[in-house]
Fold:
Amino acid sequence: MLAAIPGLRAFAVSLCGNTDRADDLVQETLIRALANIDSFEPGTNMSAWLITILRNLYRSEHRKRRREVEDATGSYAERLRSLPHQESRMEMQQFLAALRKLPNDQREALILIGALGFSHEEVAKICGCAVGTIKSRVNRARRHLAQLLSIEGPEYFGPDHTMRAILSRSERA
Amino acid sequence: MSAGEKVGMKDRKEAGSGTAADKPAGGAGKKPQLSPDIQEKIGQQLRKFYEEMVNEGVPDRFTKLIDRLKQPK
Structure:
């Protein structure tokens, strides 16, 4: 269960865009999971089971809070101070901001597959829809994201982007 | 959990070529395929996002919570 926590947190941050709320959601998920541990089938994927619980909690909470103003930009980006290089920090901030602009169903599919490494089949089960639907959501999410990122900074996808930064640093040194 | 290492982006290979300015695959009517460069970049960022969470470790509040809840009363 501990091993699943980074994935749960990543997924929760991508849903809420706010780390404090995300961690509260993870906490609720763990409480719910441990109270219902008997319904977990041994031998099945614990992470997927936990993600399903978290997703359901988020959705029912979201329905209640619909009228509240959402933290659309995501304060997670503010916490990225721990990243070692300015370059990659900026890049990650840009990336997360773009991610927040995707429709929910596309974003969750992309995160679960691209970041957490679930299979299309596992994600279809988590989201309760067909494998084909998940595949098309992921494809749309990637295209959408590429579009958002190239609008926000044409240099974002430049192959020498990082290299140039490294070179200019070492020239100064 | 090795989930973070699995890729999921590698399932679509495009033969040869590969600049961002590639023509849409499949001709008119089809949506353009993303170039492998862009797909790889998106994949990298997604994995990095997950890795950051792994590197942060599990916050105390969660380890304590699990210990407390697991304890039979």
